[in-house]
Amino acid sequence: MFEPIERVPGDAILGLIEAFKSDSNPNKVDLGVGVYRDDNGITPVMRAVKAAEKQLIESEKTKAYIGSHGDPDYGSHVLRTVLGEDSRLLADNRVSATQSPGGTGALRLAADFIASQLPGKSIWLSDPTWPNHLGVFAAAGLNLEKYPYVDADNRLDFDGMLGALKKIPEGDVVLLHACCHNPTGFDLSQDQWQQVLEVVKARALLPLLDFAYQGFGDGMDEDAYGVRLLAENLDEAIITQSCSKNFGIYRERTGCFIAIAKNSEEMEDVRSQLAITARENYSNPPAHGSAIVATIFNSPELKQMWREELDQMRARINGLRSDFVKALAPHGLDERFAHVAEQRGMFSYTGLKPEHVEKLRDKHGIYMVKSGRANVAGLSSTNLEYVCNAIADVVK
Ligand code: PMP
C-alpha cells in the first residue's frame, strides 16, 4: 500500500540547516534558523528556567494528566501577562485559557475550533506570513485567503493591507501578527492598530492574534499593545500565545489558546468545545514547560531574573539591528538597509533578492531564506563585519 506514496521535499528552512552543516567554509554564518542565538551563536537555557527546573525536580509529586485545559495556574499567569494585570476582561470573566503544545498547538486548536464551530468562515493571512500558518489552517480544512503586507520593494504596505481588510466578507477570520511579524519584521504602529480595530469592527471580523514573540520587540507591555487594544474593544477574539521564544523553551512545547467572548456564559460554551478539540488532538498538553513558567511567575526572584534575561535578549537583537545598518555605512548602503533598524523581532526582510541570497551562500557561506529573510540573532560581534562586507560585495 505504501508503494504509490510520493516523497515530498522537506521544509525549506530545515533544508537550509542541513546545507549549512555540510558547508566547510570556516567563516560560514547561519541567518536561516528561527531560534534566538547569543553572541556565541548558542541558544541558551535561561538561568531562571534552569533554577525553576531544579526546584521542580524536588517539588514535583506526580506525573498524572493535567487535564485538557492544562494547568490553571499557568493559564492565569499567561492571561495576565498577555492582557495586563488589571484587564477588565479578567474581572468580567470573559476570557478563557487552554494550555497548548506550543504556539503551533494553539494555532491548530484555533483552526479546528473555527472549522467545527464557525463553518464556512475563511481565514485571511498576511502575505507573506509564517509558512506553517498555511499548513496548519489547510490541514484543518479551512479556506485560506491572503491580504497584502509588503509592497514590491518588500517594505510594509499598510495602505494595501487596510484596503484589503475593508473588503473581507463580514464575519470571516483575520490572522494578525501581534508583534515581531514573521517573516518580515515589520510591525504596526499604535495608530495603525487603531485603524485595523476600526475595520475589524466595521466588517464584524473575528481577529486571531498570533502572539509568539511577546518581549522580543519593544517590551512585554509595549508588544501587547495591539492585542490589548483589540481584546478590550471587541466582543470576541482569539489569541494564540507561545512561551517558546520569551522563555527559550522551544522544545518543551508551551503555549496557550485564549478565547475572549461577549460574556461569561458564552466563554464557558466556547471553553467546553476547546476541551473536546484538545482531547481529540492530543488529550492533554505536556506539563514540564508550563510548570517552569508557573514556577518563575510564582517567585518574585525568578521572575526578576527572567525579565532581566529577556530584556538582554531584546537589547541584543535591537542593538544588532542598528549595528548592522551602521556597518553598512562605509559601503554607502546604510540608507538602503535603514528599515532593518526599524523592524522588530528576530526576523528581517532585508530586501536582498534571491540572486543575492544565492551568491551570499555560494561565495561567502552566509545562509538565509531565499526571500531575503534573515534571522538577525544569527549576527554577532565576530561575524557582523564579515556579513556586511559580503552583502556589499553581492549587491554591487
Ligand atoms: N507563530 C509564529 C508567527 C511563529 O513564528 C512561531 C514559531 N516560529 C509560532 C507561531 C509557533 O511557535 P511554537 O509552536 O514553537 O511555540
From TrEMBL:
Residues 27-391 form the Aminotransferase class I/classII large domain. SUPFAM superfamilies: PLP-dependent transferases. Keywords: Aminotransferase, Pyridoxal phosphate, Transferase. CDD domains: AAT_like. Its cofactor is pyridoxal 5'-phosphate. Pfam families: Aminotran_1_2. It comes from the Bacteria. Belongs to the class-I pyridoxal-phosphate-dependent aminotransferase family. NCBIfam families: PRK09257.1. Homodimer. This is Aromatic amino acid transaminase. It comes from Salinisphaera aquimarina.
